[in-house]
Design a protein that fits this description.
The chain is mostly beta strands and 216 residues long. The protein contains two helices and 15 strands. It has two domains: 97 residues, Sandwich (Immunoglobulin-like); 84 residues, Immunoglobulin-like (Sandwich), CATH 2.60.40.10. The strands form four sheets. Strands 3, 4, 6, 7 and 8 form a five-stranded antiparallel sheet that branches. A four-stranded antiparallel sheet has the order 12-11-14-15, with no helix packed on it. The radius of gyration is 34 Å and the shape is rod-shaped.
Length: 216
């Protein structure tokens, strides 16, 4: 009996053959979780009176888009989380006109993988310079003069128009209303000849044209 047991053929091992590869959880996750991609991105001033507020908006494509965060740098900074459709919409202040860079970061739920990031995408904040479209110097009587006109701009409210030309008006100014109109009356009894100039700049420090009206 003992010799029969010794001569019984051994069962072959069912272990995996040498050199076989078993993918780890992290490897499978990396294969199934590609990096996010920012498919659209724009940056525009909101033209809020007296404010350099801008709107940063766009769309991110990803497998787990709702967990993605978009971070901004450049002339406007901050971060915002995407909604369930991959959209983001963020309002913030800008230091000036220029480039804003956006990068989307996605979470993989893996301590080994950490977060994945998209390629950076740029958008340009631009604005048109203001334009003084009309300017009149009117003698009001009794030594008074009225300077009035209109400024065209995306956000004209609060723009200050500076007057120059004749020495009597040095340092004088007027402020635009919501429609871009300005009007100011000054007591200038010695102002009898010459020309008056007007120029302004908007919230982004862009200079307007210079207009001139002769005193008649």
């Amino acid at each position: 009996m003992i010799s029969g047991l010794l001569n019984r053929p051994r069962r072959k091992s069912k272990s995996a053959p040498k050199g076989s590869f078993r993918p780890t959880l992290e490897a499978l996750e990396a294969r199934n979780c590609p990096s996010p991609v920012i498919t659209s991105f724009s940056a525009h001033p909101t033209n809020t009176p007296g404010s350099r507020q801008v709107e940063l908006k766009g769309t991110v494509s990803d497998t787990m888009v709702q967990s993605d965060t978009v971070t901004f740098s450049g002339v406007a900074t901050g971060s915002v989380q995407c909604d369930s459709g991959g959209n983001f919409d963020y309002f913030t202040g800008a230091s000036g006109l220029g480039t804003v860079t956006a990068v989307a970061s996605g979470h993989t739920y893996s301590p080994m993988m950490g977060n994945t990031s998209s390629a950076s995408v740029n958008a340009l904040i631009t604005s048109a310079a203001p334009t003084i479209t009309s300017f009149d110097v009117i003698q009001a009587g009794g030594g008074c003069w009225t300077f009035k006109g209109t400024v065209s701009d995306e956000a004209p409210y609060g723009i200050v128009v500076q007057f120059g030309g004749a020495w009597q008006v040095a340092g004088l100014s007027a402020t635009c209303d919501l429609q871009g109109n300005f009007s100011a009356t000054f007591y200038l009894p010695s102002l009898t000849s010459g020309s008056i100039t007007a120029q302004c700049q908007d919230i982004w420090s862009l200079l307007s044209n210079t207009v001139t009206d002769p005193i008649v």
